[in-house]
Specification:
CATH class of the largest domain: Mainly Alpha
Strand content: 5-15%
Structural class: mainly alpha
Distance between the termini: 45 Å
Helix content: 40-55%
Largest sheet: 3 strands, mixed
Number of domains: 3
Number of strands: 6
Amino acid sequence: MKLFESFLADRFEEFLTYRHGLGLKENNARVLLRRFDKYLVMRNAGWQDLTPRFFLNFQRSIPGEGKIINSFLSITNAFFKFMVRCEYLEENPLQDIPSKPENKYVPFILSPEHVNRLLDGIRAEIRQNEKSFFFDYSVYTAITLIARCGLRISEPLNLSVSSYRPQEKTIYIEKTKFHKDRLLPLPLKMATDLENYLNLRSRNITNQKFLFPGTLPGKQLTSRYVYSAFRRALIQIGQDQPRRILGTTTFGAPRIHSLRHSFAVNTLNSIRKRGGDPQKGLPVLSAYMGHRKYSYTSLYLRMLDAEHHNNLVDFTISHREEL
């Protein structure tokens, strides 16, 4: 892990230790603070330079959209609030620096048909030789869990063999984002697929706790293999599209997390097609997906499937001057 180099180096470490004591993850905060640290070094800054004008210039130096710029300013602002509480400073020099306006974000949603085609494509790529078959099948099963259960990518990769309860057809997910453990009943087809995988695993793997073992002894499958298989299948089904920024709207590119978004939207659409009220399904869906707030799940009611996503992008491009 790289160390800080500016005159605030010791204070940055003190702040990160404080956050760690609160149970907050350090890595992302360290990466964000490193950019501010480099800016301090580049400007040869000292205490006397920490003025609002200095931070406005720092804000201008950060490339990217408003959301990216605000993420750097947010952690820097939190740092200086900490500095005030510790009485290193009398007041927070960022307190009057406004946030950048953030674009509306439209995530990419894969239709049920596209999800099925994508999984079929990944399965078709499984190499049939003895050395590679089990590893490729592990990647396929992990992605299938993400798609069929709306998991975050870290969740299947951190599962242990004991996480699956065959009598109940459930998986127990623990130590997730927001520290919310949850017990998930699996769709019947998913449970069958997982049990087939476990039978294959028992013939290939011993003394390894992770459900999806990686290439190194005692380690789990890493996300780069999941990303790679997902990307190849995405290209194969013709859904590998770039992110687009049009005016104040960002249209997201498809990524592995799109399977989680797609699970939620397609579940709500399925309820509607059966004549039910998707609004009434939100509490159960929220608990199933491990959302910290119910309001997060309600956002999926406004999302679009892949076909509508493309139509909206095309409409926005053709009417760019009017919007």
